[in-house]
């Protein structure tokens, strides 16, 4: 438990007007502060008290509910007070200033959750899921954030760490008693245990990758020659007139961004300016931004006018795309050719493929025919397998830690029988990587970065 942290206070509800506003405090010995705020009333822990909130002259600032949670039975593990009054910005600021006058200081972003972590009320993965729940952009993401908050992800990590510790104990026994005839590693089937550990880690990594996709979504960039229908496709996918559409080439002179949701996965669609040589200064700036968007994308939709096929402009665009970028070739304007919508793999040859994209889709952005095929193809490109009971929300840093642990276990599996010390070191490094996820082995600067991204009052 922390011993010297000052009392902190913050408005916990969102900015703006509302029916109810909440001011939250956390610290040591808050009972006397609660009495001063309520005009001498003594709150009972975990009981709602209706009261006036008063200033130093006993003048009423507001009235509402006061909740008092005595340590350690609170979110932060310290004394916590919540003042639930009316949700006007002015009255909430008056309440907050009264709390600061009584000795509290303004909380930093994420400081309440950070104290909960430091007081062992939450591990680091659970603490991060608080922010993820607030930031969830779909119902699926919200459900998975709750699973992480309840400890689903952490439990998987703890199981892996426990098995790693057991395996390390066998290794240490072999190192500590080299003169014994007993081969501890062989007797305990260390290689079999390591394989089971690697298999389970692979499964957790797969779930984490799905959870990270659900949290962070995918960036999809629309590229192609001017006037092939990129803006029309953006509008069709968004279900709204987001971008201006005309028959004039070069209408889109800057990147246009819109977010949609596909099966719970956030999809950030970026309509780019037609990539071409131009003397127009404004359009050239838009093209430069488009090129930056391409570099940051997960999937590129390469639009081709079905009537014209591949032209020199599109060929030049293809040469600029990163080789690692997922690509879907989209043949637009089938409403003008009389063809039916279709989606085929590049190898089938049923549609002529002009690029190295894995899938070729024929559709009409104007009529909407074939859009469902495109939506399915987008999810397939990033490996989305659908929401399942075992999923939890994850972040990029979690993926990196799991991949590092996977690499260390692979290195351990490649050690020779006489390389026991090296085997033990790889196991130790794998355990450290896993412990970083839950915060049992974390640098202070990492904690600072994580909690600084929270909103004030959490």
From TrEMBL:
EC number: 3.6.-.-
Domain of life: Bacteria
PROSITE patterns, sorted: G_TRME (PS51709)
Annotated InterPro entries: G_TrmE, GTP-bd, GTP-bd_TrmE_N, GTPase_MnmE, MnmE_dom2, MnmE_helical, P-loop_NTPase, Small_GTP-bd
Cofactor binding note of this UniProt entry: Binds 1 potassium ion per subunit.
Binding site for Mg(2+): 231, 252
Subcellular location: Cytoplasm
One Gene Ontology molecular-function label: GTP binding
GO aspect biological process, one term: tRNA wobble uridine modification
Keyword list, A-Z: Cytoplasm, GTP-binding, Hydrolase, Magnesium, Metal-binding, Nucleotide-binding, Potassium, tRNA processing
Binding sites annotated in the UniProt record for GTP: 227-232, 246-252, 271-274, 364-366
Metal-binding among keywords: yes
Main location: cytoplasm
Domain TrmE-type G per the UniProt entry, residue ranges: 217-383
Cofactors (names): K(+)
Residues annotated for K(+) binding in this entry: 227, 246, 248, 251
HAMAP family listed in its UniProt record: GTPase_MnmE
Function field: Exhibits a very high intrinsic GTPase hydrolysis rate. Involved in the addition of a carboxymethylaminomethyl (cmnm) group at the wobble position (U34) of certain tRNAs, forming tRNA-cmnm(5)s(2)U34.
Subunit structure: Homodimer. Heterotetramer of two MnmE and two MnmG subunits.
This protein's name: tRNA modification GTPase MnmE
Lineage of the organism: Bacteria, Pseudomonadati, Pseudomonadota, Betaproteobacteria, Neisseriales
The gene coding this protein: mnmE
């Amino acid at each position: 438990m922390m011993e010297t942290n000052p009392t902190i206070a913050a408005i916990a509800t969102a900015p703006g007007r509302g029916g109810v506003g909440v001011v939250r405090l956390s610290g040591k010995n808050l009972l006397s502060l609660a009495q001063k705020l309520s005009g001498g009333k003594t709150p009972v822990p975990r009981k709602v008290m209706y009261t006036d909130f008063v200033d130093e002259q006993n003048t009423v600032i507001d009235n509402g509910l006061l909740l008092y949670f005595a340590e350690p039975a609170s979110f932060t593990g310290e004394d916590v007070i919540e003042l639930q009054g009316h949700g006007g910005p002015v009255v909430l600021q008056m309440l907050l200033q009264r709390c600061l006058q009584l000795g509290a200081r303004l909380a930093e972003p994420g400081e309440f959750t950070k104290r909960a972590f430091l007081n062992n009320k939450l591990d680091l993965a659970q603490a991060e899921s608080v922010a993820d729940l607030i930031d969830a952009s779909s119902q699926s993401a919200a459900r998975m954030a709750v699973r992480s908050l309840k400890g689903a992800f952490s439990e998987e990590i703890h199981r892996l760490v426990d098995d790693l510790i057991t395996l390390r104990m066998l290794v240490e026994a072999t190192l500590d008693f080299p003169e014994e005839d007993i081969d501890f590693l062989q007797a305990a089937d260390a290689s079999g245990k390591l394989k089971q550990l690697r298999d389970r880690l692979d499964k957790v990594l797969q779930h984490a990758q799905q959870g990270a996709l659900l949290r962070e979504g995918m960036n999809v960039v629309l590229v192609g020659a001017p006037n092939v229908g990129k803006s029309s496709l953006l509008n069709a996918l968004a279900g709204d007139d987001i971008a201006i559409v005309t028959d004039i080439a070069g209408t889109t002179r800057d990147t246009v961004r819109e977010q949609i949701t596909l099966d719970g996965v956030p999809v950030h669609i970026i309509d780019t300016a037609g990539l071409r040589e131009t003397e127009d200064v404004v359009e050239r700036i838009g093209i430069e931004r488009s090129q930056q968007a391409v570099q940051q994308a997960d999937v590129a939709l390469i639009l081709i006018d079905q009537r014209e096929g591949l032209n020199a402009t599109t060929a030049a665009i293809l040469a600029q795309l990163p080789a690692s970028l997922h690509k879907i070739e989209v043949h637009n304007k089938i409403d003008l050719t009389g063809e039916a919508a279709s989606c085929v793999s590049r190898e089938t040859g049923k549609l002529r493929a002009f690029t190295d994209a894995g899938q070729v889709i024929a559709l009409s952005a104007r009529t909407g025919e074939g859009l469902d095929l495109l939506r399915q193809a987008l999810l397939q490109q990033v490996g989305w397998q659908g929401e399942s009971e075992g999923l939890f929300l994850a972040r990029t840093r979690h993926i990196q830690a799991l991949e590092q642990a996977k690499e260390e276990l692979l290195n351990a599996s490649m050690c020779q029988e006489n390389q026991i010390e090296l085997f033990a070191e790889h196991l130790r490094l794998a355990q450290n990587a896993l412990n970083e996820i839950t915060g049992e082995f974390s640098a202070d600067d990492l904690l600072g970065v994580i909690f600084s991204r929270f909103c004030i009052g959490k």
